[in-house]
Design brief:
Length: 376
């Protein structure tokens, strides 16, 4: 008996020069595929976000070369990530409806919103990230969305409450997001972990050929105290300090232009990680590397939340003893991964509309056509 493959479409942030955003999009799609679904990333790009994406690409091609000595490296990085979007994510384009969400009436059983800072209000409300405008009869699931630095729904509270009530199942990546969903009057959302902690990343990883190193992954300019800490960690180990993705003066080596596979390889091979970014923290946890996390106001919710879930808040302390990774983390990660995948599988199964029974064709051999002997 053959049943038709169920189809899912994902609406998320996938068009970005940000390693973590691209990794979570790939990880969520791969996890749903591993559950037996046919999955597309829907090529939805809100105008404001897409304008930033296009403006940044233009600035790299035209203006950045005159302003920054790292311009060639940033252009190479952008080219590598554009290639990843096209080849690995392969988003599927649809005509856009008046509401902004593509006209995704192409036979999807379930639409999935998530994950990352999908629901942040820092740049206004994007209703389509709440699947507004999706066809009637299609299941709606939210996997690990985050409100990011937003801690008050303000004037959008009633609108968001109405949008959330249309979901068949809602989960949240962090407690701040869960609290805002509860405040909107929706049942307590299940806490799940980021897709970068779910899928097998080995297919994406590329070997690191830079030798043993302390890896620095920070977007923002380091404070003097942070730079001194990164330098001290490298000196303690007698290893070079290698900054990946972004240049920093304190680093011995700056590798700005890494593609996503090389970026993953750097984390897997790191002797220690110093990071100010959420997905830098997530990958240090995933690969079992000891690390220090810096927290900026815009990322405090999500970084502190993931550290708390793994009982690793001491990684915020710059003067703590650094004796290696916490041996409790692998078991904790295995438990949270199993719980998150189980929630996703159950939510999608429940949200999928019932299909008509598929016709069954039975081709019997001659012996199978013979009548069964009578029961004794």
């Amino acid at each position: 008996m053959v049943f038709p493959t169920r189809r899912a479409g994902i609406v998320t942030i996938h068009h970005s020069y940000n390693y973590g955003a691209l990794l979570q999009a790939w990880g969520l799609r791969q996890t749903i595929r591993d559950l037996g679904w046919s999955v597309d990333l829907i090529d939805f790009r809100p105008p404001g976000n897409n304008d930033w994406y296009e403006d940044y690409a233009r600035s790299l091609r035209r203006h950045y070369p005159r302003l920054n000595r790292w311009s060639a490296a940033f252009r190479a990085k952008a080219t590598a990530l554009d290639r990843f979007i096209a080849d690995e994510l392969a988003p599927v384009a649809f005509p856009h409806s008046p509401s902004g969400l593509p006209g995704v009436d192409d036979g999807y059983d379930v639409l999935v919103a998530g994950s990352d800072q999908l629901w942040t209000l820092e740049h206004g409300l994007h209703r389509s990230y709440f699947l507004d405008g999706a066809p009637d009869g299609v299941g709606r699931v939210a996997y690990a969305p985050s409100f990011g630095g937003t801690d008050d729904l303000g004037a959008h509270a009633d609108t968001i409450a109405g949008l959330l009530r249309r979901f068949d199942a809602v989960s949240a990546r962090d407690e701040n997001t869960a609290g805002l969903v509860r405040a909107a009057g929706v049942a307590d959302p299940t806490r799940v972990i980021d897709p970068a902690l779910l899928a097998d990343l080995s297919r994406l990883e590329r070997p690191w050929d830079g030798g043993p190193a302390v890896v620095l992954y920070c977007e923002s300019r380091l404070t003097p105290v942070q730079a001194a800490h990164a330098r001290a960690v490298a000196n303690e180990r007698g290893l070079p300090l290698v900054s990946i993705g972004f240049p920093h003066r304190v680093a011995d080596v700056n590798l700005v232009e890494l593609d996503l596979g090389q970026w993953l390889g750097a984390f897997r091979s790191a002797a220690y990680v110093v990071t100010g970014l959420f997905h830098g923290t997530v990958l240090a946890i995933r690969y079992g590397v000891d690390f220090t996390a810096f927290v900026s106001p815009s990322r405090a919710h999500k970084v502190i939340d993931v550290l708390r879930r793994f009982d690793l808040l001491d990684r915020l302390e710059l003067d703590r003893p650094r004796h290696g990774p916490d041996p409790r983390v692998p078991d904790r990660l295995a438990d949270l991964k199993a719980e998150s995948i189980a929630w996703l599988a159950t939510a999608m199964d429940a949200a999928a509309p019932l299909r008509p029974a598929a016709p069954v064709v039975i081709d019997l051999t001659e012996s199978e056509r013979s009548p069964l002997p009578p029961r004794s």
